[in-house]
Amino acid sequence: VAGHDKDINCVAVAPNDQLIATASQDKTIRLWSMPDLVQVNVLRGHKRGVWAVEFAPLDRALLSASGDKTIKLWSLADGSCLRTLEGHTASVLRATFATAGTQILSGGADGLVKLWNVASGECVNTFDQHEDKVRAL
What we know:
mainly beta; four-stranded antiparallel sheet; 0% helix
């Protein structure tokens, strides 16, 4: 299936198995319907490559982590960017939902792990105990 212009960094499957999201160095996230893999949306807004994507466990939303130092929360209903989380000083390499989707954990090339409140978009804690990049959570 053709879609991205550059490497794909991450693939995620929706909790209901109806969608797949792909994140690419081409700065986009593409949504594909299952099982036929027809592209249903392209999410644009990151200024650098996208390293990670993950579907929210309950809401119809998706998060993305990017080399532009941000995490974005996207609406699956219309593909709009609901919120941009800023606070890392280097590429955000991984992000994941926590606490039943009410919080997000992110890890970056700055060595930081951050805990975010989804509703407010605020960083509630920063963990600075790593000496190098945080690539997995």
